[in-house]
Amino acid sequence: MPVGDAPDVFSGVEHRVPDALADRLRDIALVDHHVHGAFNKPVDRAGFEASINEGSTDPVPDFMTMFDSPLGLAIRRWCAPVLGLQAHAPADDYWARRSELGPDELTAAMLTRAGVARWVVDTGFKGDLLTTTDQLAELSGRPTSEILRLERLTEDLLEAGTDPDDFPAAFRSALQGAVNSSDIVGTKTIAAYRTNFDIDWSRPTDVAVVEHARSLAAQGSDLRVDSPVLIAFGVHEAADHGLPVQVHVGFGDRDLDLNRTDPLLLLPLLRTMTPVPVLLLHCYPFHRQAGYLAQAFDHVNFDVGLAINYLGARSIGLVAEALDTAPFAKQLYSSDAFGPPELHLLGAVLWRRAMGLVLGEWVRGGDCGEQDAIAIVEMIGAHNAARVYAL
Q1: Nearest-CA neighbor of 3 among 139, 141, 109?
Q2: Residue 12: is it exposed, middle or buried by C-beta count within 10 angstroms (0-12/13-18/19+)?
């Protein structure tokens, strides 16, 4: 089925964004520094709607549709034209049109219009519905790099039969392999989901690590790391090997305790770890705390990626608040798209639009020169990620 072009991100607000800034935002090739695969198999409407509801793992109730949400509105506004529909097409029309495309055709249509130069992919969530990094690169026509999830590495080593007594050495060897790999550019911890941040972040001894590895291995198959000792060990080892460390912060599925994922609880870790780049991901509603940490610690950076999609039109305010405190060299762009390829496109569209409107107001008010605004866009959109990950 023929598809259309992505709409102009400044449609309806052209007068609010200076011309040179708008042009740069339209053409900048972004580095999406935290993203996942897209669906590689068809999903039904119930599955699609569930996948655009970040917090809940339950089916969408009969009395509502996720198209009636900030994200649902944004999909119908910005993704409908890619399918050859008018902006704001009704949900039923959008779904009928979408269903005419196969997964690869749909992914290619969305991703090639995102204006992304490189995808930095978290491959830690194993799912048979998601594209691999090679598939993502092929369908988008853009290269990928990988992020190694630390908890997944622990689970894989022990599930593969690593003797718990040998686990610390095996983990370090695997990290050294990551250092030597041209594909892996960083690591990630999901401590927010497995423990929370209010734990003892001091470096554990190998004796303690072996003890906790033995307890975990005794659980059998389908291991799940929820030991603060093993999580702290992984983060400190990744830092010692010089690998950037991504940290999921804030907004996410309901199986995390949001009140205990405030990044200020990471202060004991940030003060004592080997100072490699730390990337605080998503951060909403703690983005101002993340901005404080980014200006207080030379090795801390952050993004507001996931929340931009889920806030939809209100993401303009989020992007403005993310610029409150931190130096512009400490913030990165991400979509955190997972599953529907609409999210890979939408993150880029909403970020470009929000940056244009926020910085455009600064320029029009005389608070920022237009070339300064363009430089801020280039830093956050691409240059910071290239530096942090040595791309």
Answers
A1: 109
A2: exposed
Render 28-45 in DSSP notation, one character per residue: --EEEEEE-PBB-S---H
DSSP β-bridge partners for residue 247 = 189, 280
Q: What is the spatial distance between Cα 291 and Cα 312, in angstroms, rounded to a whole number?
A: 21
* C-alpha to C-alpha distance for 304 and 319, rounded to whole angstroms: 8
Residues 336/34, Cβ–Cβ less than 8 Å: yes
For the stretch 314-346, pLDDT in tens is 999 999 999 999 999 999 999 999 999 999 999
Query: The pTM is what?
Result: 0.96
Identify the three-state secondary structure at position 50. helix
> Which region holds residue 282: left if phi is over 0, alpha if psi is between -120 and 50, else beta?
left
pLDDT band at 55 (very low <50, low <70, confident <90, very high): low
d(CA 190, CA 234): 11
Strands of the sheet containing 144-149, edge to edge, are 30-35, 116-122, 144-149, 184-189, 245-249, 278-282, 300-302
- Distance separating alpha carbons of residues 225 and 291, to the nearest angstrom: 29
Q: What are the tokens at 372?
A: 């300064």
Of the candidates 30, 52, 19, 17, the residue with the CA atom closest to the CA atom of residue 113 = 30
Three-class SS of 85-101? CCCCCCHHHHHHHHCCC
Kindly tell me the number of DSSP H helices and DSSP E strands found in the chain. Answer: 18, 7
